Give the backbone structure.
Amino acid sequence: MKPLSFLLLVSANLGAFDDSEARRELAHYLTKATGSPQGNPARRFLVGQSEAPAAVKAALAQLPEDGYVIDIAANGTVTLAGNGGDGTAFAVYDFLERFLGVRWLWPGESGEVVAPVDNLRLKPGRIVEKPAFVWRSLGPAGALWGPLDKWTKERELGVSAEHQRTQKLWERRNRLGGLRVQGGHAFGEILPPARYGASHPEYFALVNGKRDFEHFDGKHGAQPCTTNPDVIRLTVDYCRRFLQANPSHHAVSISLNDGRGFCECDRCRRQDAGAQRHEAADPETGGAATLPVITDRIIAFASQVAAGVAQTHPDRKVLLFAYGMYKDPPRRERVHPNLIIQYTMHASGHRDPEYARKEFDELGRWSKAARNLAVYEYFVQGAMPDLPRLFPNTLASSVRRLHSLGYRYYETQAGDGYALNGLNYYLLARLLWNPQSDPEALQRDYFERGFGRAAPAVSRYLHQLAERYAGSANGDVKMSDGGIAEHRALDRLYPPEFRESLRRDLAEAASLEDSVRVKFLAKGFRYFDLTMTAVERSLGLLEAGWTLSRRVTPPAKPDGKAFDAALSAWDQRNQHVERNRNGFEVAYFWVRYNDANRSFVPLARMRDFDKRTRIRSALFAANSATRSRPRSHGSFEPEPGIVAERVSYTTAYGLRVPAILYLPRKRAGKIPALIVVNGHGGDKYSWYAFYSGILYARAGAAVLTYDPIGEGERNAGHESGTRAHDRMQPPPELGARLGGLMMTDVMQAVSYLENRAEVDPRRIGAMGYSMGSFVLSLAGAVEPRLRATVLVGGGNLDGPGEYWDTSKQMCQGLPYRALSFLGDRAAEVYALRAKAGPTLIFNGTGDTILQGSKRDFYAHFDDLRRRAGLLAPGTRVFENQYEERVGHRPFFVTKGAAEWLERQLDFPEWTVAQIQAMPVTHILSWARERAVDTDKLYATEHRAGGTQALGQNVPGLTREQLSAWPRSEWETIKGEMIYESWLERARRVLSGEGSARP
């Protein structure tokens, strides 16, 4: 081939925009295609407005931003120039596509097509181009994973900056971009609950009688009260600040937070038009429901904001989602002309004519209500982690219809999995520029340019995927709730025989054209096939009676080999995803989002189930799903409005646990629950046990307090403070079994509470003190039904030969040593707990009882959090609170712990602000006034006696009140409860003559 030659003219005057990157790109691809370095003036190129002839500049003056001109003069000079920051670059890329056959099928070198050119014949003439859609964004923006946007979260997950730059360059080369719009859910930034919640709760939605700002996850909840004048003012101020700081932006989003939880105050409700809408289930925030349409109130709010912004920025706009409960057009309110309405749309669903009819009917009604129209399209979604969803012809029809209705802003929720779904993105880029483009011709060009001799096989492969998806009666492919229905639907949609047909197409393509592009597609297929293999093996488990969603539970007779095979399949899929983290074969962000925020992929839960099973096995603890077989033994009223029920439930070795359940007499709906796990010598008679029961029952919670083995009614002498469970009993295995018994007591308490009609099973927490914090840390690791745990006077699990290995062998040392197979036991325990729910560890820095951390609590817990965090990435692992220079105390009765529990469990009768304003009680003084027994070891100012407990006027309760049975009746049945009975039964189990099951 004889090299062509060209001359790229460069001026020192760059004009209004820096076109140097466009010049570099042109020179690079001319050289690559023609084999000629620049320097021989056989053909001249003028790039940018500063070099353009007057006639070209005049043509550009008639074009909008991103419009451009390709001008080929009679003397062979080529002028490439455009408007705005990207117009000239778009002119360069269009020229390279039209005349040199360059294509960028997907990001990265493997997606780049540059064919050799030995005769660059260009006819004189002028090409003038402008985009059909002024905003052409692959997005997404705004809070997407908690408070983080996609780009920030990707970097946190380990995606490289270079990967992200390559993605953005691909978008630019395919003329995506357009006007700069800051989109996405924005109210986490506009009205941060951390800044305004405590001081101005009225700014936030009134939900079920409470201002909702305490449970904001960065994306869901904490919706604004849109009729509050200060909220409107603050939103206007936010927009003005943003536009002042970002003068190149055309619009800024004021879209509300994701999910539901909208304001129920009278002012907001009065603005609603009275219509209702059925909302499908949201796996993150709630089930399907028929809900009021709130569009009029939202448009009233957004239009006031738009009017305020227009006063200072009349040429800028405000963006608002039409989404969820405000997806219907307004009935009464007028949309401000500076407001962009962004309708959330699923073009993939338009393959169903009825679905398309309904959606376009709604899109059409919005086009009559608003001047500025946008869509937010879901190419990828949290429940669809990059399985094939090709719909090229449906997409073309959808974009055409949108344009005919007047929609000019288009954003899609995209991923970077181009090996399976890249054809969607490639077509979209061209359709947004020109909706009249022929999708069939675009696809033929994609196959022929990209795959040469393999084009027919690749075409057949991708069209098989598209046709299979178009014919699906299952709607969108979903990997959401992990139930058997979704597994069966996926198995029907993409069965093994279908995948085998795809595999044959790829093998044929590879035999015809052994190219990096065919190998690229094969990597995407590998992910797809590994996912479906894992789905099929999980389906086998589900059909055999396993539960894999939310938590893993086995059937009565589990098949361990089938479980291991499914675990291995998911693990292979996970390894493939990790190997391609910085490639473009798999949408890494969305796969990991699905793993973390949906319950379909069971890999982490299966691994944790395996660890939890091994922990329970090492301690001979019962399965957490065992029935509690409760009995009721009467009740009393410790104070007006509080009922204390005397109950018992079963635990391991056929024993029963006596307990008191404190309940608020008045209840509205399901209430949260708490379990008190006592320290050495403590039981349900301990002051902190019944104080907690009454205190948190006042908050609207159920509180269960019980006797540990060897104390109270589980002591042969009906005595407290005996510490009978401390005494060493041979053989050493009994120590591990005793630890397992104590864990089982907690797990059976959860089973008891979740079956109470009053209790919300999703809001059960537990509080452990001293030895109870040790027991609860282990129980919390294996008990995923516990929503939150508070560990006080402990929680400082340590390493080999340290405090927890050596102290009190029977109830602490031997059980902890039995877990040595975990390796870093402390980190593993807290990582397992973090995956189930949050934990607070609260200690006094002067606590001389806890020696494992050498009293340097800060360094010990910081390092423990770091190690556990490596095992449970993306979780907080645990939080710490400290009280300086005080000792061993049950801090769960103090304000700090109560505030934390309110944030986790949402007490019906309390808010954080109310807790902060409540009085406190000095425990030593309170105990003396009410003749309450306190443990002499701890009844000092430095230790528990100095506790400043939340609340006042908690009554002292007597031993008679707090006993489950009258003493005479207890004497006849104590064999079902006491330590000696456990010891006898445990030894029978060791000899093979008994059972440890409850």
Residues 516-543 form the longest helix (28 residues). Confidence is low (pLDDT under 50) at residues 10-15. The first strand starts at residue 7 and ends at 9.
